[in-house]
Specification:
This protein is of the alpha/beta class. The protein is 27% helix and 24% strand. It contains ten helices and 21 strands. The protein has an eight-stranded mixed beta sheet. An eight-stranded parallel beta sheet has the order 6-9-10-11-12-13-14-15. It has a three-stranded antiparallel beta sheet with strand order 16-17-18, with no helix packed on it. It is globular.
Length: 407
């Protein structure tokens, strides 16, 4: 079925296996009323007043229903990039929405002042329209040594004036709270006071692309926790990637990140796509900190949903081959090509993560981290975002805000 942007036209009943955020319900039901969930739970407990509501035409009831997925770190898709123009960004938004990521941040890589202002202007308009949940600034206050695919010419020490300008740009574009998170390297000059400045603008601090030692990372995460807006927790940008490896005599930022997340004081971004981390590494992270301490992310680029070939990321050429993206110059891994549902599927099928944990880390945990009310869980009163999959976790349909994007 290929229906596009079709309303449910009144209450609709969806039945099947539910992943609610607290449990997997084998014989469940979700009652959609407009753009909200009116009921989610065991089919046998559906209130009498809704017993006569019919499912959509052709509904089999043999599917699994997931909450809409939430991606806190995504640069683009379908050939479009969030740092480019409005048409390009719209391509990326539509691709990920239709792939089951019903809420996502538009991530901007390190770039010049003018390019970042342009990217924020484009993305803030999408935030104001409800198409993006916010903006992620990945830089430019990052480590030269651990820059990964970040443009070295764009990296700089902390510049409070730049952050103020970007916040003002978002406000002018009609989305004053659009800036959601910012990745920075805590060893950069001026970084000590950055978490507090970010918090004053409602922005989560995220430690990443850093070559700092464990003590510096620990202090930055503590400062990020103290300054986190809306009772949140600081993030660790794609843990293990873009930072020194864990070593028993030089533990580096990884040790501080694992310890903070284990204490419930930070959330780890994890790219579970089979390229960035080994299956055993992903299992270890879930065992150590649990699904409530992990945001599964894609780090997706314009190449997501596209064939192998050459694409761009922040003005740099990226070559995708065998579903791995690398810079044309330097050969560094340059983001991902998966959708968030692809990540969930890989975590379950290749890394052995329980379905409930994988879905939690791709929905309710990022929703809580980003303070998105009513998002990320199948429960009464929440926004009607539902991802329908089969037993192999292959996509069957997407309902976003009570409207079928694909069915």
């Amino acid at each position: 079925m290929n229906d596009s942007h079709v309303s449910t036209n009144g209450p609709a009943l969806l039945t099947g296996r539910l992943v609610t955020g607290q449990a997997v319900v084998p014989d469940g039901a979700v009652l959609i009323d407009g753009d909200r969930i009116a009921f989610a739970g065991k089919a046998s407990e559906l209130p009498q007043r809704w017993r006569n509501v019919q499912p959509p035409v052709g509904w089999s009831g043999r599917h699994t229903l997931l909450p809409g997925l939430v991606d806190a770190h995504c640069h683009g898709g379908a050939g479009g990039e969030f740092g480019a123009d409005a048409a390009s960004a719209a391509l990326a938004v539509d691709h990920h929405h239709r792939s089951g990521t019903t809420s996502l941040l538009g991530s901007l890589v390190s770039n010049s002042h003018d390019a970042l202002v342009g990217g924020v202007t484009t993305c803030a308009a999408l935030v104001a329209a409800g198409d993006l949940a916010g903006i992620h600034l990945e830089g430019p206050f990052l480590s030269m040594e651990r820059r990964g695919a970040q443009n070295p010419a764009a990296l700089c020490d902390v510049d409070a004036g730049l952050l103020e300008a970007l916040a003002a740009t978002a406000t002018t574009a009609g989305a004053p709270a659009a800036l959601a998170q910012m990745t920075f390297a805590p060893e950069r000059p001026g970084a000590t006071g950055l978490p507090a400045l970010l918090g004053s603008h409602g922005v989560l601090a995220a430690v990443g692309h850093t070559d700092c030692d464990a003590e510096t990372a620990w202090a930055a995460l503590r400062a990020g926790l103290d300054a986190a807006p809306r009772g949140g927790r600081p993030l660790v940008t794609h843990v293990f990637n873009g930072m020194a490896p864990l070593h028993h005599r030089a533990p580096g930022p990884v040790s501080a990140a694992l310890a903070a997340a284990g204490r419930g004081e930070a959330i780890l971004e994890v790219i579970g796509d089979g390229v960035h981390l080994a299956p055993a590494t992903v299992r270890m992270l879930f065992d150590l900190v649990g699904a409530q301490g992990i945001c599964l992310i894609t780090d997706a680029t314009a190449a997501s949903g596209m064939p192998d070939g050459t694409y761009t990321l922040g003005g740099q050429d990226v070559i995708v081959s065998g579903r791995t993206a690398r810079l044309a110059r330097g050969n560094s891994i340059a983001g991902g090509v998966a959708t968030l549902l692809d990540v969930v599927r890989w975590c379950v099928q290749s890394a052995g993560i329980p379905l409930l944990d994988a879905v939690t880390a791709a929905s309710s945990t990022p929703s809580q981290a980003l303070a998105l009310p009513g998002i990320g869980s199948l429960q009464a009163g929440h926004v009607a975002d539902v991802v329908v999959v089969d037993d192999e976790l292959s996509l069957q349909a997407v309902l976003r805000r009570g409207v079928w994007l694909t069915r």
